[in-house]
Amino acid sequence: MSRHAALVPMLALLVGGGLLTAAEGSSPSRGRPASSDGARTQGAGQGPRPSQGGERLRAPGGGAGRHDEDEPRVVALPSPPTATTTVLEFAGTVEVDRRDQIELVPAGADLVVRWMCEPGARLRAGEAVVAFGTSLAEEEARRRDLDLAAARAQQKRSLLDEDRRLEDLVDQRDLKRLALDAARARLERLKAGDAEKTAALASDLAAARERRRRGDLALERRRDLHRLGLASVLDVEAAAADADRLAGEEALADLRHRRAASGEQDAAEIARQELRVAELASELAEGGSLDRRLSAQRAQREGEARKSQAAVARAERAAQEATASAADHLPLAWLTIAAADGTPQARVCFRPGGLAPPAGWTVDDGAPAVAGRGWSRDLRAAAVQAGKGRDAAGDPRAGLLLVRGAAQYHHPLADGTWTVRLGYGDDRPWQGLLARVNGTVLVAANEQRVRAVAEAVVTVAGGEGLRLEVGDAWGKALRATCDGVARPQPWINVGNRSGRRSYPFAYLADQRKAQVRAVIHQDLAAWLRPPGPAEGDDLRARLAATTGLVTTPEGRALPVTVVGVDPTPLALEVGDVWNPNTSADPLDLVGRAVVLAPAPEQAALLPQGARVTCRVALAADPAVRPLPLHRAVRGDGRAAVLSGGVLAPVTGWRAGASFLLVDGPAPDAEAPLGLRLGDERAGALHAGTVVPGTAHEVSIPKSWGRIASMAGNGTRVGEGHLIVHLYNPSLDAERDRREEDKVRARQDFLRIVENTPFRYLDCGPLRNARTIERMTLLSDVTAAACPESKAGSPPRGRVHRLTSPRACPQASVPPSGLTASATGVPSCPGGPSPP
């Protein structure tokens, strides 16, 4: 807990009167809160415990503020007029609940802070809170554009490769079909055996004979060249092989011709041809090998197309995000202008010039202004087609105009009041959306990824027409999305760089949700409750205030309403101090957080973070008599008033500077001050307030813990008396565990060295090793020089003997001769050294 800053309550010890009062936010004792003025009986609705026989109350404690007599002397003073209304006053802070504060997180990466507003600055919607430099983001955007171009080129190349493979397979299928038709025709001819076939075989035989004749001539030429030495033996052998092959083909063709001429069919040829037809038909059949290859190739092509399209989509998304990070954009879809009675005046849709406009709409493609209508600069390159699945011809949302940076759109319009509606946004996220119409903020968003419509009623005067202002001079900034108070983070400095997932750079508090938060004592918080009927017949609930007044530092008083009264932890780690799931007493904490809310239309008048004064008035009741606090004596859970010159017990409660008397005798017109003022009785007596001469602040240490007990509020204490007792279960358990570990380690050591012939001493921390070593080495000399010393006694020092001395089997020496090295390993003189 030491790493957390504790919310430490302060206690003020009033030495002059010996009065201890708990400041707002202090903690009671654990289990049952100890407090005076009837705090123990608040829940039961009973008064303090009465004294027996009208005995006088004694002041507990003593010390510097204690008198010589045991009983203080009561001096009667005229009491001030009794107020009929009890007013409680405390201080609070104006703040906006954290849940109602807007986190301003930079959506882009590689942005460098170059300006930020002052903490607590009151901003209007659209004004910059933090401005960024975009040099790094622009470089990233250019790199992402190159990656997008490369992804598109890779997509085109991969699809071309897949299409080429698919076309090759289709060509193979077509060739196979032609081959199948030719094989079937040949098979039919073989089976027919007609004259046409015989003529064809005769032609084949003639061709074979001509090829053989040419082969023989080539063989003779090679032999002649070989004899002349112009050809090698290998050339002659190759020519002879060709001649033999051609002779075989001639013999085969002659055999086929004779069979055809005699009407005999070639069965082997027919069988081979049938096998060829069957193979081709099998390949071309549905579900065949070629069909499977085509299906696989188509599937591969579709998969590659999806893969490349996904890569392109990722590149487009990254390029779009980088572009959005580099500058502020406003995607515009359409603009309509209508008169006060709803009559349409103009309908403009923003899209590229090539798209036809819907019926009744005018297209604006971002061209510069002509005749007072159009943009202040050329934005035609920013017009894109959008709206997937929409009818481009009939839907005004089918196009967008991405306006980057600052630009103005002018539209001629007569003076008067007009209703302007603007369709903006895109299916993709864009940052820094800002638009004003004739000075009225129409759109102010730091990031948006959906389409939306903004509407405003504007007044046109002076013949200026409609003026739509997009963006501002900052270029890239986090802006206020509504009127409020901006608070940049204290760790944000000029030059800081945003990342992909940045923490909020600033918070924007909507002043319309401002509230007053005060941490007060639980006894005071009991008199406050939210509006509504009181539960049951609880008198305190009926008296509790539900409304009040808040006074600002400027002196402005605003009515407020009590929203809630909740316990407040004493430290940042609620579970270590007060766990609502395990605490036996819900009043374990003294502090109560009171939240007061003004009317929404007046909340903006409260300055953010200012300290204000809160005043609430308790309700009047006939059964309750308000008394000034000094008219009642309180202590030890009891209360009494001076009635008939004697302190009589009464029932009541303390409420701020008043005491609410519920049951008891009527008080006298004298006030028991409880202080010895001396014997001076002369002169006029005036009512006053006793204040301490010296006050000492007693603070709880900044170490975390729980309150075991605490002196009650208003308890009189003496010097040296206990005010607050803290305890820490975790530290106590850790201390006990360490003691158990120490005992367990000593027992384990004794068990290990039980059978060793040495004497062991507990010499404390390791830093004592050198001193103990010197004392141990001189033990023999000390025993010899001092005959009166007891033999075998350990050397002088803060040591404890752990084991009894044992005899050394290697040498006959007294037990006092045992020594221990600096590392704690004992040695035996005259014997072998230990391992």
Written account of the structure:
α1 packs antiparallel against α4, α1 packs antiparallel against α5 and α2 (195-227) packs antiparallel against α3. The protein contains 11 helices and 41 strands. Helix content is 27%, strand content 26%. Strands 8, 9, 10, 12, 13, 15 and 18 form a 7-stranded mixed beta sheet that branches.
Give structural attributes.
single chain, 835 residues, alpha+beta, 7-stranded mixed beta sheet, 6-stranded antiparallel barrel, 27% helix, disordered C terminus
What is this structure, in a nutshell?
With 835 residues, the protein is of the alpha+beta class.
Strand content: 25-35%
> Main β-sheet, in a few words?
7 strands, mixed
Distance from N terminus to C terminus (CA atoms, Å) equals: 47 Å
Shape annotation: elongated
Number of helices: 11
Q: Indicate the low-confidence ranges by residue numbers.
A: 1-83, 570-589, 674-685, 780-800, 803-835
